[in-house]
Each structure stands twice: as C-alpha cells, then as structure tokens.
Design a protein that fits this description.
heterodimer, A: mainly beta, five-stranded antiparallel β-sheet, 1 helix, 33 strands, B: mainly alpha, two-stranded antiparallel ribbon
Chain lengths: 371, 255
C-alpha cells in the first residue's frame, strides 16, 4: 500500500516534466530567414543564428557571421543586400550591417540591449533602413552608420510585418489587427488607420491607391487609402479555411494570395471576386513570387508549384510544374532567371530549375556546416 | 499526438481562447474560468473523494482502537485496517484518483497556454493549424499574456517576486489541501513517510510552478483554492489540518 502511494506521488510529480519535454521538442524555434541572391552569391540566415554567403556556382562558403556562438540569435528576416553591406534583423532585437565581401560587422543597432524581436523583413529606401519591431515601434536607421533617424510611437504590442513604403508614406500592419500610415520623413502618424477584426502577419501591399492585406480572421481585405472601411473582403461568402498568413502580390488587376488552408487564390483586385483557385497539398506560408508570366508558390510540405498566369484557367488552376524538394518550407523564397532559391526547414538551400522542373544537381547545400 | 490534439488538446485550446475573447481579452480570467469549469466537470469524482475523506475522519477512533490492540503486530494491524476500510466502503488511495484524472487536463492546459500565447512565430503558425473556424477564436489572436502583473507565458521565475509569490501560493494551498485530507499515520514508520509526502508534494509543485509558465501555476493555485473550499464545506471543517501541527508529533498515536 505504502509503496503504491509513493509510486502515485512520484508519477504525479514527474509527469509534468515529461509533458514539458515533449512539448519543448515539438515547438523548437529556428527562425525562417529566406535566401537573397545577388551577383552569384546567396545570403541566408541559418537555423543556428548565422548569416552565410555561399557562391551559387561553386557552392563554396565565402563567409558566415557571427563567428561567436554567443552573439547568435534566431533570424526570421531575409537578408537585404544594399551597396557593400548585408542587413539583417534578429529575433534578439538588433539590426546588423555586415560587409558584403568579408562578412565582418560594420554596425549594430542598438549597440547594447534590444529593440524587441524583429520578425518582418526590414526595407531599405534612400539610404534609410526601416524596421518594424516587437516593441510595437517602427525604426528608421541610417544605412551607412546605423544611426537612429527616428522611431515611431508604440503602435501595438508587436509588429511582425515588413513596412510598406509608397512615396513619402510608410504603411505598417500590426499583430493586433491595425494598419497605420506614418511620415517617411519623421515617423509621425499621419492620422489614418484601419482596424480589422483580427491580427496581421501579412504586410500591406499597395496597388493603385488600395491596400491589400490578409488577416487571421480568414479574410483578405481591400482597403481604400484614407478610408476606415474595407472595399471588399475575400472570400465574399464564408471565410477561408484558415488564416491569410503571407502577404499577397498584385499584378495587372489580379491579387494572388496564398492561405494557410492550402489554397492559392486569384482574386479580382477591383471586385474581390474569385477568378480561380488552386489547392496545394499543404499550407501556404510564403508569399507568391512572379517571374514574368510565371507565378511560383511553395507549400509547407516543400512542393514548388509554377503557374503560367497568362493561361485562361476555369475555376480551378492547373500548375505548370509541381516539384517537391522533399523538406518542409516556411521561409520566403527568391526567384530569378528561371531559378528558385529556397531555404528548407532542414537548414539547407535548394535551387529549383523551373525550366527543367527539378532540383538542380548538386544541391542542397547544408547551412549547418561550420566554417 | 493527432488523436490527443483532436480529442483533448484542441478543445481545451479553443475553449481557452474563446473564453479569453469573451472575458474582454483577459487570458488570466480565462484560465480561472476554465479551472472552475474543470472542477465542475470533475465534481462527481471530487465529491466521492471528499466523502471518502470524511468517512476516514469518522473512522479515526476505530483506527486508534486497532492501533492500541495490534500495535505490536504490524501485519495484523494492516489486515484489520484494510478490513475496516472495506467494511466502510472507503478506499485509502481514493484521494489520489481525482489528481490522476486531472493529468490530461494539466497536459492539455499547459499545451494550450504555451500554444495560445504563441511567443514565437513558429508557435503562432502552429496555433493557426489548431484553431476552429469560430470567429471569436480567430479574432482573439494574439492574446495578451499579462494578468495582475504576471506574464502568464513566462516562467514564474522570470516573473520575479510575483512569480515567487505564485509558487508559494501553489505550494501553500496544496499543503493545506493535503493536510486536510490526509489521515494520520498509524505507526512511526508510516508517520515519517506520510510527513515526507505531505511536504514533498507542495514543494515539488511550488518548484514546478517556479519553472513552468505562470499560467499553469495560476491554474494550480485556483484549483487548489477551490479544492480547499469544497473540502471545507463537504467534510465540515478543516479535517486533519486542525488535528496536528505541520512538524509536530501526531496526536492520534496518543504519545
């Protein structure tokens, strides 16, 4: 009896430890920085918190940064190449500028401490880098020295999106479901805002004086700039099967939006009516990319789909190509010159040749290898 | 894991988030409300346990008689006590079952707290896959983790002195609850084991509160307080808590 009672007590005491270890394993965060390709070099963040530069043709690692493990932080933002620097925002809440040729740090903002986790990709315009942060503010930094030009007032608890810049206005969507416009010059609120019924991880996309953005309430919104009400919400009937996580893209009057319900929707930008849809095998986490007439999407299970958007589809689109890279994909991807560069969740870079319809021979390149 | 999420994990997660939305976005109030709901659902078990505790209290004079009679023959004493328990329809281990039944709820709640607060982008993306299509659930995201100065998604240790206070409340209320229901031991060896267990459990849960998300500690604290109140009214008082001091000798041994 006594032993049984002691056994019960031990089980009761230890079970929470077991459950925590199980949960911890299933939810490990590793960041999902995508690759940027510039002059034959791929720049990407790795799951162990480095930025690597890899020669596309030789697959040789040119440099990785930082050398010291203690300086590493999760990276969700895709590196930006501008001038002779590579810029990256980290989940630890710092913006780093690293030299393009040698991978040495030129500057960091802030020099000590953190401005809050950076999840949305920063944007560079006119020698200024604009960063939305998890402290709810937007920061404008000088690209050469990393000096602070301005920071906005707190707009929300968290900003996990990229700022969108049109002329002298910066638009930013918040995790709690607002969109604000700010002066690009001063960071001051310009007075307009839009409130959705749920939050945003989708950045606002501006096309012909309208903003297109997807939300957690399973709708994609079209908003007239300056208006507090949406012009339309898509779908017009029932909400979609899940959140619109990724930012849509708009071209020639058509909005292309991937959804976590695994569907790619083509929507009339003017009317909000469904033109066609495509059912992928898994959730669409990354934004679509257009290369001329070729629309490229990836789904979470690692299949790359290619569509010729000049084709007249019926209600259901048919993919020109469907190429599996064999690993899960959550990162934004890069597409140029008929090649798609994807960072898989296995910490490898895959290069998919759209023309051949296959992963190019010799890839993937593991990003996990230390210098 | 899929079956677990389908049957337990996802319902708890979605109800917790919906409650949070209904209660003005307060995740802490949602946890408290869910705790009350859980205690109501498990009420039949709790009542059975408390009745068993009450019966054990009423049997104390008989147990003391047996102790005097068979004090030198432990084997016989155990046999007679088991016989007594059987005749009275009491299961001495009955008090542990409600705790065991709550295991899946603890697991689901811990998962729900960690998933609902979605502290990383991966967590938020995973959360999206587990939400029902209910409008109030999707509109509630992201949840605020702040409640009475505590960050419910952070460990109690990361919450500083308030976290320490929460751990002490969890340990203290658990000790009171255990003390109210745990019958005094019948021999010195059992007495030391019993005392060790009475102390070990609150210390362990206090420690777990300190190391886990504060939201789980809040659940334990509220659950314990409800348990104490229910026990007080059903068993008609403070039970064994009034019989002896926490570290002192056991009066029932009559020494």
């Amino acid at each position: 009896m006594k032993q049984l009672k002691v056994f019960f007590v031990i089980v009761i005491a230890l079970l929470p430890l077991v459950l925590v270890s199980c949960i911890g394993a299933s939810q490990s965060a590793g960041g999902w920085s995508g690759p940027t390709v510039e002059d034959g070099i791929i720049y990407a963040g790795t799951r162990d918190g480095r930025v690597v530069a890899i020669n596309v043709s030789t697959r040789e690692l040119r440099w990785d940064w930082p050398d010291t493990a203690g300086l590493r932080s999760l990276i969700y933002t895709t590196p930006i190449v501008h001038g002779d620097l590579v810029y990256v925002g980290t989940y630890g809440g710092q913006v780093h500028a690293v030299t393009l040729d040698r991978g040495t740090e030129r500057w960091v903002y802030p020099r000590t401490g953190s401005i809050g986790a950076i999840v949305g990709r920063p944007v560079v315009v006119n020698e200024t880098i604009y960063v939305a942060s998890s402290d709810g503010r937007v920061y404008a930094l000088d690209t050469t020295y990393g000096d602070l030009k301005w920071k906005s007032e707190p707009l929300a608890d968290k900003l996990w999106t990229s700022p969108t810049i049109v002329d002298d206005t910066l638009f930013v969507s918040t995790l709690d479901g607002h969109i604000y416009d700010l002066s690009l010059e001063t960071g001051q609120l310009l007075g307009w805002s839009f409130e959705a019924e749920a939050g945003f991880t989708s950045s606002p996309v501006v096309y012909e004086d309208r903003i297109y953005v997807g939300s957690f309430d399973r709708y994609l919104y079209a908003i007239e700039m300056g208006s507090n009400a949406s012009i339309w919400k898509f779908p017009q009937e029932e909400p979609a099967g899940n959140w619109f996580w990724a930012s849509p893209i708009v071209r020639e009057g058509i909005v292309y939006a991937g959804c976590l319900d695994g569907k790619l929707y083509a929507i009339g930008a003017e009317t909000g009516e469904r033109i066609w849809e495509f059912d992928a095998e898994d959730s669409i986490v990354s934004s679509p990319v257009l290369m001329d007439n070729l629309l490229v999407i990836t789904d979470e299970s690692g299949t790359v789909y290619v569509f010729d958007v000049s084709t007249e589809f019926g209600d259901e689109a048919v993919a020109l190509k469907a190429i599996s890279i064999g690993t899960s994909v959550r990162s934004p991807f890069s597409a140029r010159d008929g090649l798609v560069y994807i960072r898989g969740e296995d910490n490898s870079i895959y290069v998919v040749d759209i023309g051949k319809g296959e992963v190019v021979d010799g890839w993937p390149v593991s990003l996990a290898t230390e210098k | 894991m899929e079956v677990w999420n389908l049957l337990v994990g996802n319902p708890v997660l979605n109800v917790l988030i919906a409650l949070s939305h209904i209660l003005g976005g307060s995740f802490g109030l949602a946890i408290i409300t869910l705790t009350i709901i859980v205690r109501l659902i498990t009420w039949p078990l709790t009542k059975r346990q408390l009745n068993s505790t009450k019966a054990m209290q009423e049997m104390q004079p008989k147990i003391q008689e047996l102790q005097k009679k068979y004090g030198k023959n432990q084997q016989k004493l155990q046999q007679e006590m088991m016989k007594l328990y059987k005749e009275a329809g009491v299961n001495p281990l009955g008090c542990l079952w409600p705790m065991l039944v709550q295991f899946p709820i603890w697991i689901a709640l811990y998962q729900a707290i960690m998933n609902a607060l979605a502290t990383t982008p991966e967590n938020l993306l995973n959360l999206a896959q587990r939400l029902y299509s209910w409008g109030i659930v999707n509109q509630a995201i992201p949840l605020s983790s702040q409640f009475l100065g505590l960050d419910l998604g952070q460990t109690a240790s990361a919450n500083g002195s308030l976290g320490l206070l929460l751990a002490i409340i969890v340990g203290g209320t658990m000790w009171i609850q255990q003390k109210m229901s745990q019958a005094p031991a019948v021999d010195p060896r059992q007495e030391s084991t019993s005392r060790m267990m009475t102390l070990m459990m609150p210390i362990m849960f206090g420690f777990l509160t300190f190391t886990f998300a504060a939201g789980l500690g809040l659940y334990w604290a509220v659950s314990n307080i409800i348990g104490i109140i229910a026990q007080y009214f059903i068993t008609g008082g403070w039970g064994y808590l009034k019989l002896r001091s926490p570290f002192g000798p056991t009066p029932v041994k009559g020494k």
